[in-house]
Amino acid sequence: MANADFDLFVIGAGSAGVRAARFAADRGARVALAESGPLGGTCVNAGCIPKRLLSYAAELGDDFALCRAYGWGLDSPSFDWATLIANKDAEIRRLNEVYAGLLKRSGVSVVHGRAKLVDAHRIAVAGKTYSARSILIATGGKPQGATFAGSEFAITSNEAFHLPELPKRIVIVGAGYIAVEFASIFAGLGREVTLLVRGERILKNFDLDIGPFLARELVKRGITIRFKTSLREITRGPAEFSCETLDGERLTTDLVMLATGRVPNTADLGLESAGIDLRPDGSIAIDATYRTGVPSIFAVGDVIGRVQLTPVALAEAMIAVEHILGRSTQRAINYDEIATAVFSHPNVGTVGLTEELARGRGHKISIFRSEFTSLRNTLPHAPERTLMKLVVDAQSDRVLGAHMVGANAGDIIQGIAVALRCKVRKADFDETIGIHPTLAEEFVTMREAVKETDSPGAADLAHEAPTQMP
Ligand SMILES: Cc1cc2nc3c(=O)[nH]c(=O)nc-3n(C[C@H](O)[C@H](O)[C@H](O)COP(=O)(O)OP(=O)(O)OC[C@H]3O[C@@H](n4cnc5c(N)ncnc54)[C@H](O)[C@@H]3O)c2cc1C
Predict the structure, then answer these.
(1) Residues lining ligand 1, CB < 6 A?
(2) 88 belongs to a structural domain
(3) Mutational pocket test of ligand 1: of 43, 95, 130, 413, the residue with most ligand atoms within 8 Å of the beta carbon
(4) Are residues 135 and 277 both part of a single domain?
């Protein structure tokens, strides 16, 4: 398209949109970026960053509990939610400004307002229409709504970050990572938390040992988990909420939070006028180059409904821009090898294939698994256990997956993710000298496969060491 206002118009200044805009502008493209909310999108404003800050606050509570055994005397520590939220908000504002500065330095034109596609090359924002040779949709996702009676009284993660106070009793509906992270945060900050799980497992997309193991740890921390149920109705009373579960129980609580999944942000985006197709789950259909059915329009990040994580959105953004700018690129994301963490207490870290997936793909596998009490928890006699598991292809010896529940699991798994990308074998783990005494060394000292049969679930035959041994 000759004489377009911009080479690239990006819709959405979240993780994907900001990265795409800067990446393209730094390579000489004339770029505009439209955003209807604060810069930085979900991750910065209502996701990873504020969530991790609240999670650090809750973890500090654990440290207070452990510290007496290490000789520290502490008068009863107190916690102030308003201080935490005010400090968190100040940090988010700082990050918003950092993003504005980065975009300015790259020469990206930021347009504030809600953008809508007019056609394959034109976008309307705040009463003005812009033209562009290419358009990138990076509008992210939002919490899935609910339709049961009284669901309007429930909050989602969006509101959880701005509660004026943190009430005593909290019911969380959901079984995914956002549900267990907030359950851990609220329980860690001393609240009574009930988690309602529709199925039989939390974190059901993770390795089959992770959910049950984490559930036991959450229960040890005082969280009540009810499986195979959800909410039928919420009724508001003068000072509290009365909830009826699907199995007819009544729960009285001060706050209900729904964490039942997220849906792509595609409403009122003008997709029909541009001729863009959606998948049945509402996400935007794209090809291997992140191009939609309309040649000039691309889409990346949560709105394409693949792996909904910030580092994935960033990687997709850069690959899409290379295609948009017509540069030949061999870069592609291996969606099987994406490492991720859940900042529950304890943390979960995972990379590669789960035991179920490996079996499903026809691998004959060996499972290496260890469950133990970390050295740090021995003096205080803390009940927390750590789980580590390797899924190994028995024929090639390649490590297909690594999974962990325990302190700093995300940091530990990040290193293992590099090894998996380099096609590491179990023999390489065995030949690696451990760092002693650390949690991570357990990954290189698991010698005996606990199970080599074809039935899933290594948990029952697991090697259970009482404590971490030299
Ligand atoms: C509670 C929570 C915790 C999370 N924790 C983690 C974590 O620990 N690690 C991790 O990797 N990921 C985490 N995520 C996921 C992560 O935040 C997302 O994967 C990531 O933000 C996706 O980036 P995105 O650019 O696709 O979308 P977003 O970041 O959602 O950005 C989309 C932007 O588009 C804007 N927008 C939408 N429609 C329009 C329009 N029509 N016009 C203009 N602007 C528009 C929105 O306002 C938004 O700013 C978390 C998410 C949540 C909700």
Answers:
(1) 11-17, 34-37, 41-43, 46-48, 51, 114-115, 138-141, 157, 178, 265, 269, 301-303, 308-311, 313
(2) yes
(3) 43
(4) yes
Extended beta strands in 272-325, E state:
297-299
Q: Do 76 and 88 belong together in one domain? A: yes
Q: Alpha carbon of 217 to those of 191, 209, 346: distances in Å? A: 16, 13, 7
Q: Which two tokens stand for residue 355?
A: 């035991």
The per-residue b/e assignment along 297-329, b for 16 or more CB within 10 angstroms, e otherwise, is: bbbbbbbbbbbbbbebbbbbbbbbbbbbbeeee
Determine, yes or no, domain membership for 329.
Answer: no
Nearest CA residue ID for atom 51, ligand 1: 47
436 is catalytic: yes
* Residues 294-317 pLDDT 10s: 999 999 999 999 999 999 999 999
- pTM of this structure: 0.95
Question: 252-304: per-residue pLDDT in tens?
Answer: 999 999 999 999 999 999 999 899 999 999 999 999 999 999 999 999 999 99
Residues 291 and 363 both lie in one domain: no
One domain for residues 137 and 269: yes
Atom of ligand 1 nearest to the CA of 16: 25
Q: CA 258, CA 261: separation in Å to the nearest integer?
A: 9
CA–centroid distance, residue 327 to ligand 1 (Å): 27
Q: How far apart (Å, rounded) are the C-alpha atoms in residues 321 and 95?
A: 24
Ligand 1: centre distance to CA 140 (Å): 5
Do 439 and 388 belong together in one domain? yes
Bridge partners, residue 128, by sequence: 125
> Where in the sequence is the domain holding 430, given as residue range(s)?
336-444
Q: Candidates 15, 23, 33, 42: which one to mutate for ligand 1, based on the most atoms within 8 Å of Cβ?
A: 42
Residue 465 has pLDDT above 90, yes or no: no
Indicate if the pLDDT at residue 194 is higher than 90: yes
Residues 203, 347: one domain? Answer: no
pLDDT at 456: 45
Domain tally, the chain: 3
Task: Please tell me whether residues 11 and 139 are part of one structural domain.
Answer: yes
Would you say 354 and 207 are in contact if contact means Cβ atoms under 8 Å apart?
Answer: yes
Please check whether residues 42 and 76 belong to one and the same domain. Answer: yes
Q: Which of 23, 99, 156, 310 to mutate to test the pocket of ligand 1 (most atoms within 8 A of CB)?
A: 310
